[in-house]
Design brief:
With about 120 residues, this protein is mainly alpha-helical. The chain has one domain. Helix content is about 75%, strand content about 0%. The protein is built from six helices and no strands. Helix 1 runs antiparallel to helix 2 and helix 3 packs antiparallel against helix 4. The termini are far apart.
Length: about 120
């Protein structure tokens, strides 16, 4: 059985993956936004896969979030400007997943929306 906090963490991750995967990338951009989106989506999917093994270990959720955050920051370091900033925002969202801190999970939906908008603007 999934705990409410674990379900919340999964929902947050799902929102982040959806936001990254629906990024509208403009044609002819210097940066291949489809490639960036694909890489970021892969990181999100790896996070979701690791959630299955975290059912009995809440700290594993936090570790998976930190791992995803680290990977997104590495990806962001390859770029600059708004694109790097948006990827870092998503990294911060994953890093903020603390199972024992319900307050940290509040407002995550708004953060995902803001990061998604920033990513879409960077790629359009």
């Amino acid at each position: 059985m999934k705990t409410p906090r674990r379900r919340t963490a999964i929902a947050v991750a799902t929102l982040a993956i959806a936001a990254i995967s629906t990024t509208a990338c403009g044609i002819g951009n210097k940066v291949d936004c489809a490639q960036v989106s694909g890489e970021a989506q892969k990181i999100g999917q790896e996070f979701m896969s690791s959630m299955g093994s975290a059912a009995t270990d809440p700290k594993a959720i936090e570790k998976a979030g930190q791992d995803a955050s680290d990977k997104l920051k590495t990806l962001a370091s390859k770029y600059d400007g708004e694109l790097a900033s948006a990827l870092n925002d998503f990294a911060d969202i994953y890093a903020s997943l603390k199972v024992d801190d319900a307050a940290a999970l509040q407002g995550v939906s708004a953060k995902v929306t803001a990061a998604s908008t920033k990513l879409q603007n960077a790629c359009s």
